[in-house]
Amino acid sequence: GSHNTGVLYKDSENKLWLLKDKGLKIYVNDEQTGVISSRLRSVSIVLNKGIEGAEKTYGDTEFEELTTSKEYTLPYDEFKPGMNTVTVTATDNAGNVFNASGEVTYTVYKDNTAPVVTSDTNNGNEGAVNTDVLYYDNGTETYWLKYDKSFTINVKDAAPTSGIKSVEIVLNEGIRGKEKKYGNASFAELTINKDYEIEYDDFSEGMNTIKVIAFDNVGNKSGTKEQEVTFVVYKDSCNPVITGVEIEGEKGSNLSFGNFYNGDVNVNVSFLDSKFSSGISSVELEYEYIQKLAGVQSEKKKAEGIEKPETYATRPAIGLKGYEFRMQVSTLDCM
Q1: Distance CA 140, CA 278 (A)
Q2: d(Cα 82, Cα 161) in Å, to the nearest integer?
Q3: How far apart are CA 32 and CA 304, in angstroms?
């Protein structure tokens, strides 16, 4: 039959779910048109009959006045999560009951948990950063989107679930030219788990905020009453810049050998990451050198000791003796 949509939501499987904070109303009536009524004698309502710790009773064992109808409200908080049964027995003063069994039972479900929103920042609520997509800077406690990676947001309505009703995702809310929206205003079918992807190119350089609001079908909202779920992700799409290369060492005294060095040399490399810096991940020195007798040789050496995202110099000892060399320096930031 019909149900009160102000109190109950009916899903695609015909299950009736209590709306958030709404009590269930039970109407008992012994009045029929054109029939003389003996009035109600007693009403018994049992919530979760026979279930220890969940059973509760309501009703009237007798009425002080002649009563043809009575309304009862079962409080929302007295229902347990998941399935609940409501068993009603009513007798009029002539001894009539509902049916042969003398009672009628309704089944009502309760979903008191809000949809859970997670993202690559906590890798599906497992507490770990998805390092395939993000670089996490422990020093500044910031998340940086890796080059050309999409950012994934997951919305899940855990059991007992009435299903997700709507999802709204706003990237950089209120910022002209940068705000973008994603999500679903509604779902045609029962949906309990949904992924959304924000493409790399949708993010702006620097800091980005992502606000997520999700409702289930009975009115539970993600986040808290005071605050929506928000993620902050940074984007750094600019390559580091080599600002200087300086070689220190003792050159040979024999001028016929030109720029050959007699001992070890230090190579001082200065570099700078972008304004929105994710930091320097590595520095690689690639040099070509000419030995006096052996001709042209080549070698690669990776610099060590890169610790923080700022301009600084590194001095790896290359150990050339009696060599002339030409060098290229490349850097790779954390993206």
Answers
A1: 10
A2: 8
A3: 91
d(CA 152, CA 197): 5
Closest CA to 183 of 202, 164, 200, 161: 164
For residues 28 and 24, what is the distance between their CA atoms, to the nearest angstrom? 13
Widest distance between CA atoms in the chain: 129
Give the angle subtended at the CA of 239 by the CAs of 237 and 240, to the nearest 5°: 130
Residues 169 and 184: their CA atoms lie apart, in Å, by 9
| The pairing of beta strand 229-235 with beta strand 142-145 | parallel
Closest C-alpha among 35, 59, 60, 33 to residue 46: 59
Q: CA dist 232 to 71, 138, 257, 266, 330, Å?
A: 51, 15, 58, 41, 30
The per-residue pLDDT of the chain, averaged, comes to 81
Which of 100-104, 165-169, 218-222, 264-268 has the lowest average pLDDT? Answer: 264-268
| Residue type present at position 230 | T
Q: Beta strands of 219-279 (E only): which ranges?
A: 229-235, 241-248, 266-272
Rounded average pLDDT over 103-111: 95
| pLDDT at position 232 over 60 | yes
Question: What are the tens digits of pLDDT across the range 144-192?
Answer: 999 999 999 999 998 899 999 999 999 999 999 999 999 999 999 999 9
pTM of the model: 0.76
Nearest to 115 by CA among 61, 144, 154, 157: 157
